[in-house]
Design a protein that fits this description.
globular; 2 strands; Amino acid/polyamine transporter I; two-stranded antiparallel ribbon; 21 helices
Length: 449
């Protein structure tokens, strides 16, 4: 439920509206393709988790199977992902609230939402888990209700907003690729962002009872449900209304129910998507707190971020991330219209880096097992190593396409060299404060631990 709650957020509930308006029904294929990549990433992560469950998740696997510097880099890229995702989520909260309070500045709503979630995360992991469970229940129930309602509306050919629900909303409005294949490919970056957070299963495994029994079922369930929810929802959205009826100014789900002429249903759905944004941001604070604690234990993050409360909450890491979320509040004050796109474009870099790290770590685990150094778990990445290379190629394509997309995506793409330099300088600084240890020896000691 934590993984589902983290993944079902603004990428679907808000981002799908703007992407449908840009690419049309072709967005269905983008979600299906990214869903396939997500499936292989999750299966790779599952094999790693059953090898060794830890709250440090892929950061620790990167240390063990690649090199200590890879753990440092992947940890900070994952933190960047969630730092930017949190900004996108609190921006979405402000956009949703605009429906009810059109005169309320975005930054005020964003600040109130942030304060509420920080308090929840600081109190206890049990309270976080309870809140996230119910957040997830609300979102999953709403999507299931939408799927059944949408299917009924399509079957009956219901009139919605001046048009009739049905396949003709695709065939009579330019077909599957009304804006061309190129524009459809440009949506991959945003869709990758929508699937981010499914890797939270790996982080939660370290605080899960009997992970060897629970994790395979959890991972398979998350992948299948997310695929049905995402691909199914986008398909229904294209059948219910012409693709140009949607926009990035409100949730596409709210658009559908508002066009039905039942105002209160639109308000209910707006409340649901508001919950979704709060839930995903909540997951971000949880995950970054654990990742920063793992980095701090190795001396690769400020010592403060490794501090634990008596309730076993890494409050230092949570507070560290919340300070960056405050920058999101400032962004909402300065450029409220561009804040969302800028945040998800940069967050996507962290998603790609995290997924690539997981895939490479699984490849190294498999190679070590073939050499007889470790025992490979029975729950395995299907089709390895061919599916590994295919997934890595797909992730590389997503990065390249960002250079030809919108302004926000291009800014993110050209920030890659800057991020690389920052990570190299940061690693050098960390190494300079440590006693000299050969890298191979350090990697062995990490693996043995």
């Amino acid at each position: 439920m934590i993984a589902i709650g983290g993944a079902i957020g603004v990428g679907l509930f808000l981002g799908a509206g703007g992407r449908l308006a840009a690419a049309g029904p072709a967005l269905i294929f983008s979600y299906a393709l990214c869903g396939l990549a997500a499936f292989f990433v999750m299966r790779a992560l599952g094999e790693l988790v059953l090898h060794r469950a830890t709250t440090g998740s892929f950061v620790e696997y990167a240390r063990e199977f690649i090199a200590p510097w890879a753990g440092f880099a992947s940890g900070w890229m994952y933190w960047l992902n969630w730092a930017m995702t949190g900004i996108a989520e609190i921006t979405a909260v402000a956009i949703y609230m605009h429906r009810w309070f059109p005169d309320l500045p975005q930054w005020i709503t964003a600040l109130v939402a942030l304060a509420f979630l920080v308090v929840i995360n600081l109190l206890s992991v049990k309270l976080f888990g309870e809140l996230e469970f119910w957040f997830s229940v609300i979102k999953v129930t709403a999507i299931i209700a939408f799927l059944f309602t949408g299917i009924a509306l399509v079957v009956k050919g219901t009139e919605i907003g001046g048009s009739t629900a049905g396949v003709h909303n695709i065939t009579e409005t330019g077909g599957l690729f009304p804006a061309g294949v190129g524009i459809a490919l440009m949506t991959l970056q945003a869709v990758i962002f929508a699937y981010s957070a499914i890797e939270l299963v790996g982080i939660a495994a370290g605080e899960t009872k009997d992970p060897h029994k629970v994790m395979p079922k959890a991972i398979n369930g998350v992948v299948y449900r997310i695929a049905v929810f995402y691909v199914g929802s986008v398909l229904l959205l294209t059948l219910l209304l012409p693709w140009h009826a949607y926009s990035g100014l409100e949730s596409p789900f709210v658009t559908v129910f508002s066009q039905l002429g039942i105002g209160w249903v639109g308000d209910v759905m707006n409340a649901v998507v508001l919950t979704a944004a709060l839930s995903s941001c909540n997951s971000g604070l949880y995950s970054t707190g654990r990742i920063l604690k793992s980095l701090a234990q190795k001396g690769e993050a400020p010592a403060f971020t490794g501090k634990m409360s008596k309730n076993h909450v890494p409050y230092g890491g949570v507070l560290f991330t919340s300070v960056v979320y405050l920058a999101g509040v400032v962004l909402n004050y300065l450029v409220p219209k561009e804040a969302f796109d800028i945040a998800i474009a940069i967050a996507s870099l962290g998603v790609v880096a995290t997924w690539a790290t997981i895939i490479v770590c699984q490849m190294r685990l498999r190679e070590a097992a073939l050499r007889g150094e470790i025992e490979r778990p029975s729950y395995r990445m299907p089709g390895a190593p061919y599916t590994n290379w295919a997934t890595l190629g797909f992730l590389a394509l997503v990065l390249v396409l960002m250079a030809f997309a919108g302004t926000a995506e291009r800014v993110a793409f050209w920030s890659i060299p800057v991020l690389a330099i920052v990570l190299v300088v940061g690693w050098k600084a960390v190494q300079s404060r440590r006693p000299s240890v050969p890298q191979d020896e350090e990697r062995v000691s990490v693996g043995q631990s």
